[in-house]
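Researcher: Let's run the pair from yesterday's discussion. Sequence first, then tokens, for each.
Model: Starting with the first of the pair.
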Amino acid sequence: MPDYKTVEDVIGATPLVRLQRLAGEEAARHGNVILAKLEGNNPAGSVKDRPAISMIRRAEERGDIRPGDTLIEATSGNTGIALAMAAAVRGYRMVLIMPEDLSIERAQTMKAFGAELILTPKAGGMEYARDLAEQMQRDGKGRVLDQFANLDNPRIHYETTGPEIWNDTQGRVTHFVSAMGTTGTITGTSQYLKEMNPQVRIVGAQPSEGSRIPGIRKWPEAYLPKIYDPTQVDEMLLVSQADAEDMARRLAREEGLFAGISAAGACWAALQVSARVENATIVFIVCDRGDRYLSTGVFPA
């Protein structure tokens, strides 16, 4: 009988594709290649599929949780969707806490996977959502996996995302660019790439002052993710909301890549890097798909 794969088995191994029109003639003249890693190809549609299944599997292995338990997580969207999918696959009740102003598509997708949603005030942001999740755990209402402090988050990127980029570029990668939210992707991937070649430059994309970009955060000191290792990031570029949204539209129209706004922010940062280097292989993470943002008005109706 054929050895059929499960949903879990097809998480990861996402493709790298070369930007053609956005990179422009200048990148070609300087010998630069800009590559997009299409994490929207994961089963639940984002890079967060990797840590979601990693956190649940490893918590099971440690005996921290077992099927039938209630899991709680504060999320801006993609981790919640991924956890809802993983909980459905492995038999958990999933309670997700998210600010009320995030896109309706994300909320609907979480519910489609069977998750229960608690919406928190927009003014409180993700900080309030995280505080509420911790309070619910203290009240005995479930177990918080805590993507912000759980080492199984960056660990899966060290084990999978980093090696995939290294192998698919045949070790030629010179720069890795990622939006910074929970920081699991950039921390784990950086650790692997720098072990393979300490000269690889790691660039994080963060929102500029006053910008609100789903999936990219600049955390107050008290809420800085515990998994974040600043020694793994060489440079941070500030991306404006306007530039990220414009790049999302351009990615779709000029490259045929229908990507989310944080992915577009990472693309914008990758192009900034390309403008000042030569003979570089620049990889950026396309962390999700654009259909999660249709109700936001970023894409023309």
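Model: Moving on to the second of the pair.
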Amino acid sequence: MSDPRPNRPFVKSGGTEPVDAHRRDRDYLTPAEMTRLLAAAKSGRHGARDHLMLLLMYRHGLRVSELIALRCNDLDLASGHIWVRRLKRGLATNQPLAGDELRALRRVLSVRQDAMLWLFLSERGQPLTRQAVNYLIAAIARRAGLGPVHPHMLRHSCGHALAHAGRDLRLIQDYLGHRDPRHTARYTRTAASRFTGLWD
């Protein structure tokens, strides 16, 4: 008899730990869905800031806490790099910024007239909170016509996009700041590129 809950993890009888945590709903956005989300971010009241926020979360696999902790001095626009300070004992790294990221950053910073250290500020000029980011992403996802989207999905989307592009597991591990390669394997294990040419 087939499993009546094919997209849910198996659970031990009387327990809560999944036997096969690999069997779960898709918890990331495809590149096409990310394009829709980023476009919808631009249409909001603070479109430039929100677009930059989502772009950096996606491109650098940022957790919410890592995003709101970003400071302006973590950026080196001259060399095109960002210092990513990982949480959960993760590996901090200096990562390159793509051209569209640099343009988005300059657009946001060009209208800043404050002396605040943090990169992302609220309407009141205070650092964004986790709750604010959660709310903004949910609202942007609705405008994009997507289902429920939570911030950590953007980090997963980064890992899956890199894996589907055929990037090496160790490279993705270092990029996302994972100390345990098992956390990275979830992306490479499901990558479509692994199965390309299987029937050739």
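Researcher: Give me one sentence on the second I can quote.
Model: The first strand starts at residue 10 and ends at 11.
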